[in-house]
Amino acid sequence: MSRLQFDVELAADEDPKNNIIIIKSITEENGITYLIPPCFQAAKHHLQLLKLPEFLKIKKSLQRRGQNRKVWMSVPSDVLALYEDDVGNMTFNDYLLQEITQVTSQSITDGKLLEILEKLRLPTYITSKLDRQEVTDPILLFSALRMYENHNKNVHKHFAEKKSSSKSEVEFKKKNTLSNMLQDGKEKQISL
To answer: Its domain of life (predicted)?
Structure first.
């Protein structure tokens, strides 16, 4: 018996009201992952796999659409023959499965950082604030971006308040000054 890891997900059927279990990928013990094509992803194509006890546990644990599980299963030789040919290639129904490589980088080089920032299309007022020497880890990059996500590029500037007056307020002020002058008994020529 050999071990394989299956990526199983609960997804929508052709009829959107129904859910089906699909098998998206298979991973060998050495870490190589193979994608199953969409036409063979439905669990109804993998009848021998459905009979395994691990698969029954998966059925119970997937409750909502979109949930997925990556589960290691001990596969008997008769079931393994469905997924692997005599030479050792991963196949299903005489279809060679596509191998994918997953590379995860723990550090970001300066060139990669610029490439990520270009793809995100961030405004320059945010990218200029990032310290490129300190942001060497993807987690640090996104936490630094989170600090500036709610900042507005237009910083509030302090202006002296200038009160504008309407026509009626201006006329009221003129009358007030005119009446004050008449009450004081001063006679001046006022041009209106």
So the answer is: Eukaryota
pLDDT at 36: 93
Residue 83 CB neighbour total at 10 angstroms: 23
Structural contact between residues 34 and 97, judged by C-beta atoms closer than 8 angstroms:
yes
Q: Which long-range contacts (CB under 8 A, 24 or more apart) does 147-153 make?
A: 151/125, 151/126, 153/123, 153/125
29/54 same-domain check: yes
Tokens matching residue 56: 């029954």
Task: List strands edge to edge, sheet with 33-35.
Answer: 68-75, 2-12, 19-27, 33-35, 98-100
CA distance 161 to 175: 25
Same-domain status, 135 and 66: no
- Amino acid symbol at 134: E
Residue type, 80: L
Identify the pLDDT of residue 178: 53
Within a domain: residue 176?
no
pLDDT for the residue numbered 5: 93
pTM value is 0.54
Give the mean pLDDT per block of 10 residues along the chain (192 residues): 90 88 92 91 90 88 90 90 89 89 63 69 71 70 73 56 61 59 54 50
Task: Write out the residue range of the structural domain in which residue 77 sits.
Answer: 2-100
Q: Is 173 within the bounds of a domain?
A: no
Q: Are 82 and 92 in contact (CB under 8 A)?
A: yes
The answer as to whether 172 is a domain residue is no
